[in-house]
Amino acid sequence: MLANQWMGKEDLEVNEVPDPRILNDRDAIVRITSTAICGSDLHLYDGYIPTMRKGDILGHEFMGEVVEVGKGVGNLRAGDRVVVPFTISCGACLSCSRELFSLCENSNPNHRIAEKVMGHSPAGLFGYSHMMGGYPGGQAQYARVPFADVGPIKIEDGLPDEQVLFLSDIFPTGYMGAEMCDIQPGDVVAVWGAGPVGQFAIASAKMLGAERVIAIDRFGYRLDKARQAGATDVLDYEEVTVLEALQELTAGRGPDACIDAVGMEAHSAIGPLHAYDRAKQATRLETERPHALREAIMACRNGGTVSIIGVYGGLMDKFPIGSLMNRSLTVRTGQTHMQRYMRPLLDRIRNGDIDPSFVVSHTMPLTEAPEGFRMFRDKQDECNKIVLKP
Amino acid sequence: MTSTASPGLRRTARLLGLASTGLGVAMLRDPEGVARVAGVDDSDTAVPVITVVGARELVHAAGLLAGRPGWAWTRVAGDAMDLIAMGRALADRRGDRYRRLRTATVAVGVLALVDLGTALRSSRSRDEGPATDLPPTAPWKRAIAVSAATTVNKPPAEVYRYWRNLENLPTFMAHVREIRTPDGGRRSHWVAEAPGRRTVEWDAEVVEDRPDRLIRWRSTGDADIENTGSVEFVAAPGGRGTEVRVHLAYAQPAGRLGKVVATLFGEDPGQQVRDDLSRFKQVLETGQVVRSEGSPEGPFARRLLTQRPAHPRP
After folding, report:
1. How far is B283 from chain A (nearest CA, A)?
2. Which domains does chain A have, with CATH numbers?
3. Core-most of A2, A264, A382, B112, by most CB within 10 Å?
4. Distance between A72 CA and the closest CA of chain B, angstroms
């Protein structure tokens, strides 16, 4: 089969590799019909996530048709159309039984590596380094799906791929980001990063009843998408001072909840600060460039909530703990507990509450994945979301 | 769990480290002065030699001050070099220089004895392992003792039952190839993998069996590897399943077999037991050992360093 392989920093190749086969009774093999490039794939592309190996298959947003199931998978059959969540969960450990699916205690065979970095290990992920399990990803023609009786969701009506594909990660991720804000009537929610995850966070915050949703980014076309998703206000951080603008918009209160949908490779309009973090990140003295998170904490109203869904990998500097502690802020975060959200969000798509295909800007064949990554990273051609067709 | 040096040993090692720092700094800052005190200021080579020795002292100091008593061996080697050099120099000196050099040589000799004592103690403390961790059934003085724990999301009775059927153990114990229980469970015959595609075998017997609570066993007769161990099952608080605690001890005979035991379990024997318990948890909770293309054996210490690329294999 063809697969998009990570060969090194900023070096991808679509190559012929062996087809996957069943390794465990609870595996399924899926023939992939659509797969997407995620913003978090760019952290791998840019070489900021440790424990990648040459030849690793990337991709964790994919869907397709079941072609084979192991004898432990009772709920799926060859021919079923499924969307696969990016987290791998066993469904039986204490974390899974508490619906903390992204903290599955069994799905990362390399949990020792993650424990060295993070103390304890989260769940295994598709195509996201060896620290996260060493699983091949879904930017390929086929994928092996472990715990296929727990993860994939069947799509039984004729919804097109583009409407349901994002149930694999970014729609539930944006939704959980908004849900963690515990939105009350009248709440103002600010969202840093108006990429696809931010756009879904904005749409979800509106769905959950936010009074106003403020999008913060520096690309006009992304801020336009944010408006389309439901943002009531947009801020270009290269044009305005974000903290001042938020004070202004909320008459001095600050947003009730702040969502960081940016993560470890943030940009800052403040040149020297950006250079400082960039230099420390390049020399591996910190793994993060957390401008968005710092700003989200400073901006949040007293007693408000900071919800982090942007991906971070390790350690950061200059964390405004004083602001967090003295102002009674609540931080909520996590990789998405996918199985909790896929079914209800599929229902929302069916009901017509949302059509997730609005994020798609480009569709291209899998063979053009390396070019797609470049475009997406460099924000060329108003690139918002790329769907690859194997 | 691995052994640690006693506090007294570490204190001595630190003091030696401080002594090395003092000597090293003095030698590097004022080699001429040191040469005068030692009575070798008449030699052309004294200053460069003292400078090199000063740098070497700082290397000893770095290791010892980092809390590694084993680095006393580097001081022992250094002392030997110094004493040989000083003994040679002594033969050519007369009068006041001879007396000064003799004093310096005696001082180095005394320090050398302290170094040797510290080095020997550090090696012994490594060999013996943590004797306090030995299960009460362990009859040996020299052993590798390890313990590990995990929490399994199943009731104690079920967890106990799986383990008590000893023939299940090879499912999650990476190095155990086969266990036979001819008489239904009290006695068992174990076959385990050893380096170089060899196998080691032993008979074992369950010496204590408290249903749903604890199993204790030990090897019997002429075992290739004498060992003893216990596994305890305790209900975790608040319906969190079962806490499983394993204590194992392996006799560490000197010579060939001692080496086999050591390499069988790699550098950190505790790691292997922890990996076995990870797989045990997976098997009980999910019915299988969880494998990825990068880690086809499931959780496995050696594989962490030699991950396969995450793509399928033919």
Report:
1. 9
2. 2-169+336-389 (3.90.180.10), 171-333 (3.40.50.720)
3. A264
4. 9
